[in-house]
Amino acid sequence: MSTVEYPSIDWLAITPLIILLGGMLVTLVVASLTPAWRRGAYAIATAVLAVPAVIVEMVLWNRVGHEGPVSIINDALSIDRFAILVWIAIAVAVALVSLSTAEYLRREDLDGPETYAMYVCAALGGMIMASANDLIVLFLGLETLSIALYVLAASHRRRVESQESGLKYFVLGGFASAFFLNGIARLYGASGTTNITAMGEAFAGGILTGSDDAMLLAGVALLLVGLAFKVAAAPFHFWTPDVYQGAPTPVTSFMASVGKLAAFAAMLRVLVVALGNRADDWRPVIWVLAVASVVIGSVLAVVQSDVKRMLAYSSISHAGFILIGVEAAGHGNADGVASSLLYLVLYGVLVIGSFTIITLVARTGDANTGVGAFRGLGRERPLLALAMTVFVLAQAGMPVTSGFIAKFSVIKAAADSESYAVAIVAMVASVIAAVLYLRIMINMWLADPEAGDESREAVRVPFTAGVVVVLGALFTLFAGVFPGWLIDATRDAVLR
Amino acid sequence: MSILASETHGSLAFPVLTALVLVPLIGAVLTAVSSNRRPEYTKLIALVSSVITGGFGLWMLASFETGDAGFQFVSKHQWIESWGIGWHLGVDGISLFLVVLTGVLFPLVIIGCDPHHDEKPYLAWLLLLEAGVMGSFLSLDLVLFFLFFEIVLVPMYFLIGGWGYDQRIYAATKFFLYTMVGSALMLVGIVTTALLARNDIGRLTFDLVEIAEQGNFAASTGRWLFFAFAIAFAVKVPLFPLHTWLPDAHTQAPTAGSVILAGVLLKLGTYGLLRFGVYLFPEAAVWSRSIFLTLAVIGIIWGAIAATMQTDLKRLVAYSSVAHLGFIVLGTFAFTREAIGGGVMQMINHGVSTGALFLLVGMIYERRHTRQIAELRGLQKVAPIFAAAFTVVMLSSIGVPGLNGFVGEFLVLIGSFSTARWWVVIGATGVILAALYLLWAYQRVFHGEPDEANSSFRELRLREGMVLLPFIGLIVFCGVYPKPMLDRIDPSVKSLLERVEEKSGFVAPETVHVETHEGEG
Hints:
Radius of gyration of chain A: 22 Å
Structural class of chain B: mainly alpha
Order of helices and strands of chain A: HHEEHHHHHHHHHHHHHHHHH
Order of helices and strands of chain B: HHHEEHHHHHHHHHHHHHHHHHHHHH
Low-confidence stretches of chain A: none
Radius of gyration of chain B: 22 Å
Strand order of the largest sheet of chain B: 1-2
Helix content of chain A: over 70%
Strand order of the largest sheet of chain A: 1-2
Oligomer: heterodimer
Mean pLDDT of chain B: 87
Largest interface: A-B, 30 and 32 residues
Number of domains of chain A: 1
Mean pLDDT of chain A: 90
Low-confidence stretches of chain B: 1-11, 517-521
Largest sheet of chain A: 2 strands, antiparallel
Shape of chain B: globular
Largest sheet of chain B: 2 strands, antiparallel
Number of strands of chain A: 2
Number of helices of chain A: 19
Strand content of chain B: under 5%
């Protein structure tokens, strides 16, 4: 009788995953057995759940610093500082988005534990993507994230736009996943393994026979299609404005923060670790994606009249900036990975803050997202308008905000790799994008009131959302003035 | 003597430059959080913090070591260590008077200009603007400079957009975007400069002095980098053909905005060209001088002609700025001691006289609610003191000997003659054109018989007079006795020129050394 050999498991390393998964399941079970909780309780429970997860992640961060990275569960997950940094960012994002969702669900009469459970589920998928050391595991993480996001996008039951958004995302996302899976198969064909580290070693030799080379190139191309779709890079961005606009606004902030974080983390790991030796093959592709994203994202953002669509296009442009860091990583520049990570973390906070404010301004029904909805906000809610000003100025890359640090780091990485052209294109595109941020500011502070404005519903700022806005704005300014610790952290988190 | 003095300015001394940046910043925050119920305190906080800043500026001027070409009162700290970015402030002869002018101008503007509504945010933005401008003039770190240079846009944008006239949002947006395009390229230039200098220095640093002294750029690289910087500054100056934002911004801005814009903000461009363009890339600056000289001269003539054609008094003054700033650029790229020194001088003079002109135009608008020259007539009859003040300021702007405008322009023209002869010959006609457009405007507005609308024009009030007095005092003092200023400017200009000559091989032919008494002539 043969015995099955189980891989030994480093329990501490997966504790953050277990905390989130267990917490989610317990919350779901308890919530379904008890009468409806008090207002905000589901959100606060979810946010509190993130606290031990972040603490354990910090312990892990230190452990990896002392003992070096480990790969666990039969090489399926790689626990390095890169993964842990993304985990921390995701856990914090889940907490912030949950808090900003709390009053939204009450306002829209949708309150219940399901949305939060979906957040945690998606976050788990994202965390697995960030640490996956096997393409199949990566795919599992991707699907866990994506399916949760499809459901979340359609979760506003009474808004047809939300349903449409969910369906669109599902159909197109399914396509992208198919591309991605097909790419994995081809890479397996070329290297004989699905393990990311092993694949990197397999390609280290550099010499492949003719058919293997074609297999590899096709695999890289298909994999990049899947990943570029997930990060919303042009020309695979067409779903983004529709889905961002239709989805419930807090869900949009979740997609733009956690979704981008996870997808970029996966992209970086696959490209740098598995395909690092074939950088010459994928770097030009990333270059094109980066330039297309910054230009298309910025230009199309300017002609929108709906704020959610504007920020959807601007998120495409931001994805382009992050891709500039990835391109620099393709030159073997470690700062490329660090700058992408830094950008992701800083942008995540910005985008959550911005969408939290949009959620409040959209008022009951979540439909009031035209740029005119912001008209007069400076008079009605000066502090809220001030916070939004901080967020949009940061997105425009103004100094003394985290946005400047983010842009500066990728431009520096690009210049260090002598990719001057892409740096210049990106900076010019960011000026174009500034028009859109100015439009939001004009409406908040400078525009004259129009007829019917006074009969609009007042913008309420509930406590939980207020906390998110204040924390986000303070972090944006703090990280803009004292970014040193974050820069060092992202440098420590570089993939090797 | 000078060694002794520079020792007392060591790191243990009071960090006056840091205070110059932080006091208005703190003032802005205090103003913003002050109580809405006591508006008089809000104004007091703003005024006090700007006066303290101005006081620090004057104290710095008093203890500035004349004859020392290097940076003084240096304050140097690490800031973002991993990227080699530092808090490095310092002042030399080129930036000294710009800093002092900034310190003097803001309190005067706060006293002299009334925003009419929402005073609290107005004052907060104004103080934030002051902190940004101070920081830009004092920064000796490329990223720190960029940070201040760019952050200036935000308060200025809100000042124009929130307290300006009919087309204010259009003008504010245009101003913001034009300047941002320039600085976008400059950021790439800054990063590349530091990364390339890393090979020579051994570590990544954005410190201006270190890069200038140890960095070594190939000629073609230096030229690319120079242009990345120069375009940003050319927009700010503004140099023809990048000047079109200026008339709109000036015309639509509230009076305070116009005064600050003309007084100090435009100088960020000409100052930047000297401090970062010429200092870092002397070879490229010499190589491209004919381009800049030509654009400067076109700017002088174009600005003057355009000013002549204006029907709006404020727009006229705005176009005259384009012409005046052309003289500064002409002087900068002539690369002689007189010309560059005169250019620096002209930066201050233009700030004083055009600032005062905008104040006066603002006062006319307050009274008549129009800036159209055609609607104004015979003001001299009803407001003789006002007309007298206007005359002095206008004559200074024209460049009449004995007033400050003459000193700078004369030095620029005489200094440039040896190295940029034909440009000077054409540019000098700009002096005549300046007399044409300003005197013609004066004639139309102040001479003649006042009609019904203009006969009730109010005479200069005491508060307005007190605000104008320092301007007129400076106009006369600098015109009659410019030596103290030139003595402090000249050593830094000389050392900058020595650097240019050493790095580029460009040697200015010997010129008649103009001693610093020509103001009386």
